[in-house]
Amino acid sequence: MLEQSVVGVDCVRAKSYMDLHREMAADIAAERESALDMLGPSAASVRAAVAELLDHRTFAYPHSVLPMIVHAVETGAPGPAVPLAVVHELWWTSACYLDDLADGQAVFAAGALHESEALLATVIGGIPLPLLVVQSARIPEQVRGPLSAEVVRCWIGATEGQLRDLRADVDAATCEAVVTAYLGKSGAPYSMVTAMAARLAGCPDERVERWREFGNVFGILWQLFNDQQDILTGRNEDLVNGTVTYLLACAVETVGGDAAGHVLELQAAARCSPDAREALTAVLLAPDVLRRYEDDINSFRGRAYRLLDELGGDAAHSTILRDFVDRASPMLLRAVEPLTRAAVPTQL
After folding, report:
1. What are the CA-CA distances from residue 221 to residues 41, 75, 326, 343 (Å)?
2. d(CA 247, CA 252)
């Protein structure tokens, strides 16, 4: 845990984003209930279905506080951005369900909901309900339109990223192409809430765009973290789905030549073959590949740091945000065989 020193005062533990979430959890829960109430008395079944979906899909890492931290960096107060925390929760709950559906996973187990019910709840919870939240009386009238536009822009960008994943084009197995996809898959939702928070705080357009850039970089870092966990936990969903990950692109670009073609052959075979998945994992965890991967993680983290330095703002909440970046960007993979899965962190 980070610590900070104050002249004449004993060192104190710096607050983390999870500390802030614990402090604000009751406010977020109340705001979530208020959002569900916006569906109106004539939509009782819709409300119940969306509530069930939200209860079923819980998140190990409470990233919903990100827009609150950004707002606090600008104003010193996280509270006004609580509605944006709910928008973040709604968006990711919907996106995760749709991602499972796109990957062909069984999605019947969404609480007490049947698949068709869950899909309908996903549509309402992911698009109309966030729009109702940002159009509500809790949001100043002058920013309701721009915040609504952010929701629409996010869904377009995220869908583009998901479609790139589904195509699994071998020509896209370059680091540059994967970053483009990641900017949609994860960059779009994180840049949505960081830009929203900046607009809600009254920032000028240029500063909003700097926060959007930070959200994009954070989203890439988080996707890299998620990719590593997929391997460490043994889920190997990316290998089974044929996903072109950044790590795969690092392997292709590192080995080069005919060896790169062999890596892509393994990637295609890994969808159905456990032996191919094992062989491909060994390639991905080769020391040269992991060195390249770690260097790039450090580079993305450095970009996030530089943006925070440029943005400045409230020192206490900037510290929380920098800690948030650190927790989202560890290098977890190690070039060892067999892969030690006990080292997977349970929380950031």
Report:
1. 41, 26, 10, 20
2. 9
Residue 5 has pLDDT above 90, yes or no: no
* Count of Cβ atoms closer than 10 Å to residue 104 Cβ: 9
Lookup: tokens for 63: 């990233």
Domains of the chain and any CATH numbers: 9-327 (1.10.600.10)
Over residues 34-48, mean pLDDT: 95
Distance CA 175, CA 181 (A): 10
Q: What is the pLDDT of residue 105?
A: 57
- pLDDT band for position 171 (50/70/90)? low
- Residue 163: which pLDDT band, with cuts at 50, 70 and 90? confident
For the chain, the maximum distance between any two Cα atoms, rounded to a whole number of angstroms, is 63
Question: pTM of this prediction?
Answer: 0.89
Provide φ and ψ at 27, rounded to 5°. -65, -40
Write b or e for each residue in 7-29: b if 16 or more Cβ atoms lie within 10 A of its Cβ, otherwise e: eeeeeeeebbbbebbeebeeebe
**In angstroms, rounded to a whole number, what is the distance separating the alpha carbons of residues 304 and 214?**
6
Q: Which two tokens stand for residue 208?
A: 């909003």
Q: For the segment 86-125, what is each residue's pLDDT rounded down to a tens digit?
A: 999 999 999 988 887 766 654 555 777 888 888 899 999 9
Separation of alpha carbons 21 and 65, rounded Å = 6
* Locus of tokens 């079944």: 45
pLDDT for the residue 148: 97
Q: At what angle do helices 287-311 and 205-232 cross, to 10 degrees?
A: 150
Could you tell me which residues come within 8 angstroms of residue 283 by beta carbon, excluding any fewer than 6 positions away? 251, 255, 263, 266, 289
- What is each CA distance from 229 to 281, 282, 285, in whole angstroms? 13, 16, 13
Q: Identify the CA nearest to 17 among candidates 4, 2, 33.
A: 2
**What is the H or E stretch that residue 4 is in?**
strand 3-6
pLDDT attached to residue 336:
59
DSSP state, residue 113:
B
| pLDDT at residue 109, rounded to an integer | 55
